[in-house]
């Protein structure tokens, strides 16, 4: 079968479509004929070699999030799964392929009315947005900033904050056109990447949900309201300055909180319950998924190039 391997770490040209043996489900796994493959930010991080110290080496089969049909199950898995259309997390490898295997606890049946492409645009990122807002103890009426809102995590966070009764939903993004699309999803104020450009935007935020990090993080930490909560989810803009935490102590009397949040610490059944509810909402049109483009697996290099060039709004999906 066809799969995508990282031949050489670095730019997208280091990715190659190769023939590999079909995967066989181990005990506790299901085997899936792939229909849609999500191209996530973490795939680009692995491709660049940034996670080599964590065991991701050249030769790695890329891909973590797929949708498709279950064609076989491993020992100990209910055969009722066979034939079901599902979303699955493959565990940071093997997803960019015509067939894949996944642990059954990371597999969820798709509701009628949800396409595979929509499922991979929402399945992994939607739960991150949900639990990040929980971690921030967001309550109705509060002012929320979503930093890096044009990615699939941010797109769901904007909708959940707006739907949850936020007093204002402020976003950062890199163009007026992307800002208009975010307003359409529920943003009330649009800032540029440095936090400027929104003359009528609230000066302070009760909650910041941040996938960007990077050198500008302290600028946004300074804009937390008293008792404000800042939740960092990712570092697509690089690492923040090493001493950024001093801002919290310098503003001691504002009782600010800073948290890092990874959905890895949320038990799988809790994530599946939220994912299932979000899939149902999406199938009914109450939660929007944004698929930037659907490309054949053979065009994986173009897909990664578009991500590196910052052209993607939402998620690129590959089809085998
Ligand atoms: N915490 C968790 O549990 C968890 C789970 C999965 C993934 N992640 C992390 O989340 C990130 C990916 O999330 P995603 O797919 O939603 O994001 P994404 O699409 O990779 O990026 C989101 C947006 O950030 C903006 N951006 C990119 N580079 C920037 C920069 N240098 N400075 C300022 N803004 C920049 C871009 O929008 P504009 O051009 O419009 O500004 C981009 O669309 C990765 O870091 C991944 O590791 C975290």
From TrEMBL:
Keyword tRNA-binding annotated: no
Swiss-Prot/TrEMBL keywords: NADP, Oxidoreductase
Signal peptide: none
Gene3D superfamilies: Medium-chain alcohol dehydrogenases, catalytic domain (3.90.180.10), NAD(P)-binding Rossmann-like Domain (3.40.50.720)
Protein name: Oxidoreductase
SUPFAM superfamilies linked: GroES-like (SSF50129), NAD(P)-binding Rossmann-fold domains (SSF51735)
GO molecular function: NADPH binding; oxidoreductase activity, acting on NAD(P)H
Taxonomy, superkingdom: Bacteria
């Amino acid at each position: 079968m066809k799969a995508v391997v990282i031949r050489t770490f670095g730019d997208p040209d280091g990715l190659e479509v190769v023939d590999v043996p079909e995967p066989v489900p181990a005990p506790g796994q299901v085997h899936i004929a792939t229909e849609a493959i999500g191209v996530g930010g973490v795939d680009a991080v692995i491709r660049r070699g940034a996670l080599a110290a964590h065991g991701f080496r050249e030769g790695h089969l890329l891909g973590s999030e797929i949708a498709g049909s279950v064609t076989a199950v491993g020992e100990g898995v209910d055969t009722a799964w066979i034939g079901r259309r599902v979303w699955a997390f493959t565990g940071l490898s093997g997803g960019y392929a015509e067939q894949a295997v996944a642990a059954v606890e990371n597999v969820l049946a798709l509701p009628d009315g949800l396409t595979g492409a929509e499922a991979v645009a929402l399945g992994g990122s939607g739960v991150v947005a949900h639990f990040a807002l929980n971690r921030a103890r967001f309550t109705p009426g509060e002012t929320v900033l979503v930093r890096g809102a044009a990615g699939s995590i941010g797109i769901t966070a904007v909708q959940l904050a707006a739907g949850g009764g936020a007093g204002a939903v402020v976003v950062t993004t890199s163009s007026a056109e992307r800002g208009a699309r975010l307003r359409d999803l529920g943003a009330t104020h649009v800032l540029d990447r440095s936090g400027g450009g929104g003359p009528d935007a609230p000066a302070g935020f009760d909650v910041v949900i941040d996938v960007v990090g990077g050198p500008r993080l302290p600028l946004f930490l300074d804009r937390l309201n008293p008792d404000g909560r800042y939740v960092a989810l990712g570092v697509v803009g690089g690492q923040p300055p090493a001493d950024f935490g001093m801002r919290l102590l310098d503003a001691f009397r504002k009782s600010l909180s800073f948290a890092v949040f990874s959905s890895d610490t949320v038990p799988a059944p809790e994530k599946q319950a939220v994912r299932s509810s979000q899939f149902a909402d999406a199938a009914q049109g109450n939660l929007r998924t944004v698929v930037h483009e659907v490309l054949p697996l053979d065009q994986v290099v173009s897909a990664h190039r578009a991500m590196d060039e910052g052209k993607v709004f939402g998620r690129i999906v590959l089809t085998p």
